[in-house]
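Teaching assistant here, posting this on the class forum so everyone can see the example we discussed in section. The complex has two components, and the goal was to see what a joint structure prediction looks like when all of them are supplied at once.
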Amino acid sequence: MDPPAGSPGSLNALVPEIYDELRRIASRAMRHQPAGHTLQPTALVHEAYLRLAGARRLDASDRPKLLSLAARVMRQVLVDHARARRSAKRGGDEIRVTLGPEIADPGGPAYELVSLDEALTRLEAIDGRQVRIVELRYVAGLSVEEVAGVLELSPTTIKQESAMARAWLYAELSGESR
Amino acid sequence: MIDAQDWGRLKELFISASEMDAAERRELLDGVAADDPGIAARLGTLLDAHDRSGGFLEDRVAREAEAMIEEAASSAWIGRRLGAYAIVRLLGRGGMGMVFLGERVDGSFVKHVAVKVVGAPVASESLLRRFAVERQTLAQLEHPNIARLLDGGATPDGFPYLVMEYVPGEPIDRHCELHGLDVDARLRLFLDVCGAVEHAHRNLVVHRDLKPSNILVTPDGTVKLLDFGIAKLLEIEPGGAADRTRTQAAAVAPGYATPEQVRREPITTSCDVYTLGLLLHRLLTGEHPYTFPDTSLAAAARVICDEAPERPSDALARRARSDGDPSAARRARRLRGDLDNIVLTALRKEPSRRYSSVDALAADVRRHLDGLPVQARGDSVAYRAAKFVRRHRVPVAAAAVVLLSLVVGIVATARQAERARHEARLANEQRDRAEAMSTFLQGMLGAADASAYSAGRGRGVATTVAEVLDRAAERAGTDFKGRPEAEAAIRTTLGKTYRTLGILDASETQLRRAVELERRLVGEHDPEFADTSAWLAATLAAKGKADEAEPILRDAVAILRASLPERAGRLAMAVNELGLVRWSRGDAAGAETLFLEVIDLTRRYVPGGHPVAAAALGNLGLVRDAHGDLDGAIRFYREALAALKALPESKPVEIAISTANIATALRLRGQYDESERLARESLDLFTAALGADNATFVAPSWTNLAELHRLEGRFADAEREVDGALATLHAKLPPEHPMTAWAEGVRGMILTDTGRAAAGEPSLRRALELARHIFAPRDRRTALAAIQLGHCLTVERKFGDAEPLLVDGARDLEAALGPDHPRTRLARTWIAELKAQENAAHGRSTYR
């Protein structure tokens, strides 16, 4: 994936590091937390961000860029994972059982995220800003106000743009077989 | 691919359309289609998707993230052997650990099992004990609807595990939806669940965590209860005896926690009666009976302990309205009555008021299925009122802490911590200013006789609070000598509190003094001065002195607007007040603009929302009401109610106002039963909050009830009610108050309807005179007073005087409310009656 436009090179160099950090946090989360905890993707991104920002003594002005970057990488990490799950499943005869949200069938259909990623790539060609907003708001889990802060736009604009992006993506994906 | 220009146009249209209702959207789409059908089609698709896309992105992302985390955790277990079973793959994670699909490997026969392993490598002592208990518990339970325990033990490295019957199936709620089961079929499934729970209760086991995801239905339609994860032996435990158990740090999802779990009271079988009530509600409506305003535990605790659950039939009726789904409407009618009462009885907050056992609940459901009368009854009004008073004493903060200890699954993010710090800073600033004041008030409150606070027995809370305020007001001058800032602050607080209590003269006195102090301190152009003077204006407006209030509010709004974004909340409140003043003077359009500005201001400047936004929503309903759009009005009132209930603090007076407004709109539509129910609900709320002798809200509520009873022909009730209201109004409000005008009108109509038109005439003349004095000349309220007097005069056979009143009134009502509004129709009916009577009189006189 290309780095987001406008990111300074020094931060782009962090991409692999963020990637590793996200995966490390994910696996550590399971080992060190009492059973029953759920780790939210939001927390993943924030934790990765805090570690990197802390380790590098990043300037506060880098925060928005780093958050954007972390959101992008998070998207990539998830898509990679979904792709791997999908190919792993091609061979086996999968017996699907649904066990509800608590005893959840982990992950749901793997192509969900892959197709979402593909739709986002199509949206990128039309409206890159909406893709940034989706990444920050839905992948990194930032609030409307926080996204507004990162992108230097008004919260109203963020709400309107994300509503449209969400609707567009939904319409794009509603054709997929579920 | 769409080009940039079209995309820009599409975006513009989408943004404006997403704010519109269905009819307006239709209109917009038609307009666009006329000149660019391509864009119109795209817009249509986008808007459809917009309505359905809520939450879908979050869900997809979260599912994948969870899968990633699961995988990291479970990979070490795949392929391991535990006793006679091998672990094949992860099925999911539960409250206590991970659940794997296992296979029997001893070759005797192929059999799938579910293997439950405590997930953490260092399991805590208490977790291990719970696990042991579960093993013992499950082993006792043999029932066709309970998943069987097959084996249990510990791995060589010390992980305890259970091997259970593998249940391929779907959660019961999803099963019902997917297969489109009708109400009877759902009830029968529910009875199967009850049977299993009852069996467990007989074995002294309380499930305590009954929720759809723990109740599966297999492809052949068999119900299976899973995961007696936190079930605990009721009476006899391995180590000793205890007849009741207390909750420990158990993993209960907040939506399924019971009030007694939140309050940390003893857990009995009644806990399962409650959760079965939740389940039944979900099976019947597809929804949860509570709306949680946000994800905070404090909010969840408050909702679980204090909020009334939504009636199942109301949930469906609401959906029928919003989706226009006729099957939901049908189902709502099916649930109304018996099934509503069954669910609400199971969901009562106090265990002692629920069904005495699961058997009793099941028996009632069976009676309903057999068409027999059920035992469940709705709560009485008196009970609900008493409950409301008690509610103020529930230590919500304490409950929240308990819930925090109950619920596992919280990851404090950096974001939450940041927000908490921000709030703490704000609180600090406010504390400094408020400290002097609260110390003072606390001193005053502490001085009051403690027994005076045992409100609820006839004596309103307000009485005692008012006494305390009077004492505080007396002492404010001396206690704050030489500290004008503190004195201004305390007088403002006193003025505001008096106003809420409807003691308007005292409120005006205190606020005038506060304004005077501020003027000397900071001058007339300071936001602080504007802030205080807006409070004064609000009191003046409440006294019916709109003329005096309006210029003060205009100045205050101008000053506060200039200091944005500071004091945005206060500005919004002043704008709202100004809107109310415009509205009371008949300028609905001007008022509407102002109310919309309130909502915009709070959206823009007050993150997390502000109660005044909810008030403005309700006031937009008033505007719709004034335009004669009753449906629109009710919609706004309901939105306001929802917004109010979502606020973290409880707003009984505001909730009562919106409820009362809905009641009035329903009365105008002729839905008297529902109107009466809501009118009484709001009256109870007002009385509990403000005392029985309150003039601003309680007395007008009695007037409304009197009008309703007049319309229903219950004249004796109506007369008693309106006389009571008038006594309070005359005693406490200035004579030219709109509420007095309205009450006089109702009284006059009651007398007219009961053959005492001559006695009613002075009341109606007085009402019309007041209305003419208060409102704009052709205001709908003036017009209503005119036709009421006209009708009275018709009855008195003073046809000449009656006619102009009726005709002009009808014209003004039609102009204000439209030709089809109930009031316009009423005016036409009365004109027809006048004509008929006139003709009859003439006929008789020529006859003679």
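For the discussion questions: Chain B has 35 helices and 13 strands. The mean pLDDT of chain B is 76. Think about how each of these relates to the inputs above.
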